[in-house]
Design a protein that fits this description.
3 copies of one chain form a homotrimer. Chain A has 349 residues and is of the alpha/beta class. Chain A contains 4 helices and 39 strands. In chain A, strand 21 and strand 22 form a beta hairpin. Chains A and B meet through helix 3 and helix 4 of A and helix 2, helix 3 and helix 4 of B. Chains A, B, C: It catalyses: a UDP-3-O-[(3R)-3-hydroxyacyl]-alpha-D-glucosamine + a (3R)-hydroxyacyl-[ACP] = a UDP-2-N,3-O-bis[(3R)-3-hydroxyacyl]-alpha-D-glucosamine + holo-[ACP] + H(+).
Chain lengths: 349, 349, 349
Amino acid sequence: MQFSALQLATMLDGKLEGNPDVKVSNIAKIEEAGEGMLSFIANPKYEEFIYTTNASILIVNESLVTEKPVKSTLIRVKDAYSAFALLLEKYKQIMSNKTGIQQPSHIPASVKTGQNVFIGAFAYLGENVVIGNNVKIYPGVYLGDNVIVQDDTTIFPGVKVYENCVLGSRVILHAGCVIGGDGFGFAPQPDGTYKKVPQIGNVIIHDDVEIGANTTIDRATMGSTIIRQGVKLDNLIQIAHNVDVDTNTVIAAQTGISGSTKIGKNCVIGGQVGLVGHIQLADGTKINAQSGLSKSIAEPNSALMGSPAFDYKSSLKSQAIFRNLPDLEKRVKELEDMVKQLLSVREGV
Amino acid sequence: MQFSALQLATMLDGKLEGNPDVKVSNIAKIEEAGEGMLSFIANPKYEEFIYTTNASILIVNESLVTEKPVKSTLIRVKDAYSAFALLLEKYKQIMSNKTGIQQPSHIPASVKTGQNVFIGAFAYLGENVVIGNNVKIYPGVYLGDNVIVQDDTTIFPGVKVYENCVLGSRVILHAGCVIGGDGFGFAPQPDGTYKKVPQIGNVIIHDDVEIGANTTIDRATMGSTIIRQGVKLDNLIQIAHNVDVDTNTVIAAQTGISGSTKIGKNCVIGGQVGLVGHIQLADGTKINAQSGLSKSIAEPNSALMGSPAFDYKSSLKSQAIFRNLPDLEKRVKELEDMVKQLLSVREGV
Amino acid sequence: MQFSALQLATMLDGKLEGNPDVKVSNIAKIEEAGEGMLSFIANPKYEEFIYTTNASILIVNESLVTEKPVKSTLIRVKDAYSAFALLLEKYKQIMSNKTGIQQPSHIPASVKTGQNVFIGAFAYLGENVVIGNNVKIYPGVYLGDNVIVQDDTTIFPGVKVYENCVLGSRVILHAGCVIGGDGFGFAPQPDGTYKKVPQIGNVIIHDDVEIGANTTIDRATMGSTIIRQGVKLDNLIQIAHNVDVDTNTVIAAQTGISGSTKIGKNCVIGGQVGLVGHIQLADGTKINAQSGLSKSIAEPNSALMGSPAFDYKSSLKSQAIFRNLPDLEKRVKELEDMVKQLLSVREGV
């Protein structure tokens, strides 16, 4: 797809400087952009690139002052970063603007689908599945019986959603994630074996949630595992049965949350963090990457680090001394020698 | 599906109190149950809910004494928890009682299938695959050539089993897990590149094993990676080539076991644990979440913690002092000052 | 498939001792090999097995001296290990020698395919996908629009590659890995919600790369996430947007690399390691399993350990003292008592 400078300037309500007919078919960072590409300069520290870039079109701030001739066609707008982000979004929308139902796909008569839906080949919808408007279901997706998918949600290839789970509106599920697998519940028996505890609950994912590739969210034993509005989960995260993650919490890759733990609103949890089961985190809790948490956090906006985790600043101090433990041990050894000497002197006296 | 109180009471051989015709179509925890739902009370601390719940039917212990009128229809049984668990299991069985072979699926003429089998659409069976009785293969499953699946095993959607692997009876593989991918074996070459070591072994999974979503178990270089009877693996676990996990061991999510390590019977391994290769764990070893183990454990029933891990109780003590390292350092500083003073006094003398 | 001793000896240019007609259909380690199996002895410490093994054929070094009668047919070659590895490789090639296009698969008219290609059933190729010669695409693979796959690359079942990504020659992608999912980029808004930053870049995987099962590699925000020639990634690894991993670097399972981090050539990174974003690792950096790195490493061939990681040897020392922290604390306590005593004595004087 190609756009001319004139088209883009019109779209962005910007002022055009240079050749209005030059065309771009790709987007790149200023330092990497070549001919036929569109880029932007918002940050003054990148302004030097304006004289050397091969980008055919540049979006810049109205206020930008050029001191030498510029090869690229410029489009001047109030806020170059926002204008560029807007274009990116439109570009992404156009690129992923798929509709229609491809064959073969498995769609029983009991399924209800909304308008303007995309269902890719090899997608499998169970009995009584309900699909809202503008939903995109990529190839190879599996939706179990009675799954509900609300409007404007996108499910990327190979996602598996077990029966009875509910996905809200504008949810994005990335490839390979698994929603609603059985929680890890087993009752130990006297002979050392384990008996499976049936997991008959479901997973409910509220609006505006994004879930990364190959992340797994287990169904509740009874009731629901809940991911609330605006939560963003990265790749390869494990969410166990009956967990509840409250609105606008962000969790980085490879973190694991054990069963029945409740995470507050607006928390920020780093990568590879582990949380034990049955604890609560207050709103705004921040947890450093690779930390391990085994206790509830009652105070909102706490920052924690370490495995086991404690207060971030104290943890930093302990870590600094840990690095110098051999030195501390040496100081103790020297003290021991000196004190021994003092004692012997005293005894000598 | 609906059940009347009379049907359930008959099924459980229980005594009915209240309306025998009231019907339920769902199951919930006592504190969340509404009209049309079935719940139970086994633990005395939940007995207070009996007067406030909207559950239409409650399973309770024979011995339960009510002091006020109860809205719900009661079914009295010897052991309310066991009776409820039995119902859950039956419910789960009914919900997942799929049979038949859906089209399109890929089933070569060389495949042998038992009786009462379910094979979902888009499932792919390689040459010479053998499927036992009552096996359920969900949509989008891939079984490579010569894979054997024994009776009553369930393979959830999108599971991939590479060629020549063997699955026992009553095995459950959750969505997206990968059985039999190549072990991570590369021979370093003089020029800094790596040469792949062909991985020609397989994976053998014994009876009654359950494996979580997106867990990966690599095939052996030669011989077999073995998961023995009754082992339960959670989601996103990595089991490397030639590992052997002995009976009734339980491993929590995101743990990784490196190549050729042997884990004993009835071990309990927490989440996000890492084990290096070529070590052995004695039966009954317990490892705390996020620990890292680099040495064999010879003593049965040991408990370990930390990265690197050591004895659980000692590890707790070291962690407690770690939290107070700044304090310990301060005490050493004070000692240094005092000793310096003592020395100067002595020299002054 | 069966091979006679004569066939194998001819293939390996080896000298045959024993029955030239004996046949093998399987391969095993010397200590596990039975009748009808082929094995080898390269390491002198396994030579004792030569008199007890039931292997039908053994590949041994020319120089091997036998002192008692041997049941197995021997094939003597210059280097038994290399000869055996060669056979393994040929065996693996024969076992996986699939070609042809199975139906149903989704291959739009705009797709270009090379010669001698295998495309399994339920594979989905997007518009304008380009497939080189001898490429194997297993069942259930998804390749988004414009994906390029170069010669001799193998994509195992259920791999998902998002649009515009590029795979080099002789690449191996194991089952369930996800290439090109959206990077985890969200702009925090004043109301506490997050706005998705469109991820319009791609992933480029160079020649001779192998990527493990269920590993995830995110597409760049702009530009490319790059995995360079000869890199080997194990299972369940997370590579974030705009990461660059240089040639011949090896990364073990469950490690996570955060956004825009650059890893040098010939690095060796253990399992469950975490790297923060926007750092650089010099060539030859070695990082111990479960370490966490938050700073760039400028010195080539550094070895690091710990979370947070520092110099390997110092880290070992700190860990050793950590194990004995209760002892160190006790020594400090004793010093305090002694010094208190000394002070009181002095005051007493």
